[in-house]
Protein 1
Amino acid sequence: MNFVDTIDERVPIRRALISVFDKRGLDLLVPGLLRANPSMSILSTGGSFVAIAAILGACAQPGAAGNLRQVSDYTGQPEMQGGLVKTLDFKIYLALLSETYNPAHAADLGRTGAQPIDLVVVNLYPFKETVSHAGVTPEQARANIDIGGPCMLRAAAKNFLRVAAVVDPADYPAILAEMQAGGGSLSLATRFRLAQKAFAATAEYDRAIAGYLSGLELAEVAACYPGPRPGSAS
């Protein structure tokens, strides 16, 4: 188990990973990040990548589109069909959990070609909203259980010593203002506050899933899948 005794008050935000279901505010966030740090590298996935590419394509800053990269290009692994696996990769979590002054972590980054990620912007599939609708099926609910998003938020929030975990679009303006005033960096106080909010969000998300599943009967679940094949799973 690692115990850290040296951290930085302010951390420059050089690399961001953005993967959001709720894309409100991206048109504010993405150009603002590049104004604070024009050389910033942005990793993204799926629909978020498409939305960011469109924003950067319309950005007045020359060459802005070159700041964006697919997560699959970074990891070397294509997305699983249906987007089921996009960010669950060693190079992503190495980039999130590596500690600034740990030489073993630096060696792992060099060995794998990974680069530290300083900012994670993630919000989750709308599970609670989905199950609140009349007539929603267990299969529709199951499909809206986010896996990669909570994992990234938890990893980034655990490493608030170096990484900012952003779960709420309402925080974008304050983050951008601080980065603009601080030469593209974020303070320990901000990183810690964002970590608190991220863990609260993932805890609430898990409670919603557990509460929904505990209210289901197995017969209700089985009815979603006509023609089950007992013993066919491997």
Note: The mean pLDDT is 91.
Protein 2
Amino acid sequence: MNRRDLQLLSRIRKREAKVLFDAGNFAGGYYLLGYAVECAIKAAIAKQVRRYDFPDKRTVQDSYTHDLQSLMKTAALWNVLNAAMAASPALQLNWAVVKDWSEQSRYDLQISAVQARDFYSACTSRTNGLLSWLKNYW
């Protein structure tokens, strides 16, 4: 798994989530779109590893999580995100919607249409969506 693979996976999971949302399968779409964000953050982490360098053990270990906030810190984007959110209330709101996603959502069958729509918008908005913002760093 390399940076390009993670970028591609992020794009694919985003498209798959849209198909599920459009078909009214909100729980599955929510789950996959969260993975799209996770893959985008992991692509930003992969960007930090220079070719032929042996990666730092701590970074590698910290990358094996699904916790979005922890991944943002591992990607060295946490402070960057906080500065961007201070300048953009819309990005701050979108992070508030996305940050609590968990891989455990795969078991959640109670994702409402409203919750799914808000999550989709928070992730995919062209100007302040998390995926749009992360593309600057992956």
Note: The chain has a mean pLDDT of 93.
Protein 3
Amino acid sequence: MQKNSAKFEMLDEESKKHGLAAQKDEITGYHIYDRLSRSTKDVHNKKVLKDIAEQELNHYHVLKKYTGRDVKPSKLTIWLYLFLSKIFGITFAIKLMERGEEEAPVSYGRISKVIPEVEAILKDEEEHEKLLIDLIDEERLRYMDSMVLGLNDALVELTGMLAGLTLALQDTQIIALVGLITGIAASLSMASSEYLSTKTEESDRNPLRASVYTGSAYVLTVLILIIPFFLFTNIYYALGLTIFNAILIIFIFTFYISVTKELSFKKRFSEMATISLGIASISFCIGYLIRILFNVDV
């Protein structure tokens, strides 16, 4: 070990820094996966997470053999990913963490001259670890399509409807009440449709749960979009904030999908934003025409 440490000490300061940073990442990853394995009740997921944790710990000890130093994990990073796992699920948290390790090959490349095991570590990170992560089975991911259905429909329908009503009615309280009643009715309709649709599928998805996910996503989106009309009396402030909320929902949910499903964020975000805002613009114009043609005065 002393011989290995001596080789490491011969590296330039920048390379030493990369080596210790890689060691810190491994021990931090170990604690994250270990804590996640102990917090989940699913036996299958618990085993997968424990296997990844042991792999991270093994990498740490390999690096320690050369650096000759103990490195403390980043408590802030551990807290952050444990928090994200509670909010968005285990899969999102660990895949986001793996995205953040894209610079690992650079760090390992700087120390590969004195640590021959680097290639094996990188292979574990890129292949074995990815395979293990893909084995994680999370309920919310199985019902992702149901959530997407509810959220997309609510965004397109409600954003468009609220934009149309803004000029047609010009009263935020009336707009909010009409939007809320319509939104709740539409969410029940969507949930019922998803229940019947899932029931005819040949899959392991539970029809009732699928309908709950669809309805819940729809109702939550409706509430977020309608709140500005309850808070403001100025119709344009309310509509502006509703559009902002719609874009924020699209941003957060698209980012979530892009991480968990490993899809292009930019493409999905631009598609959803263009559709929702396009429908809102058309509805706004229709509301204006209706107000002029029928001389609506509320």
Note: The chain has a mean pLDDT of 81.
Protein 4
Amino acid sequence: MKYPTFMRRLNRGIARFSGAIIFVISALAVYESIARQFFNSPTSWTLNISCYVFIWAIFLGSAYAFQEHGHVAVDLLRDFIDRKTRPSRTVRRVLAISGYCISFIVIAVFLYGGWRLCMRGLALNQMAPVTFHLPLIWVYPSIVVGSILMLLTLFFMILDLFSGGEEYL
């Protein structure tokens, strides 16, 4: 099964939305700089909002980074094997699938932890411990949504490799 087009489009669209979030964060930073420098009137909310919105941008953009080989990869084992032998495509495929499966497990743990944070934040009505009191239930779901997107992306990447695709080797 080839990596699905709908997943490419979904990840690309969400990555664009993530980029728009970063643009808004940049605009808030410019606003804060102007307010502080020229009007001697700094805000108490821009930094806090920017930090929490940035968390959304990071988690939403991570699936696209997987899809486009944008995450940092540890090629230590593959480089070692390349130096010792001329590995076949099968060996490279097994190494890639193994690495993506390990990533899948780590992100599944993220998803579990994010879900627990969401449930605790909802039950306890947790607020951000900063000057701008934002309910953390608006921040924690970023972990869940981003993890689900990354797991779906990894799932389709692994399926692509099992079916003979070479894009994610």
Note: Residues 48 and 137 are 15 Å apart (CA to CA).
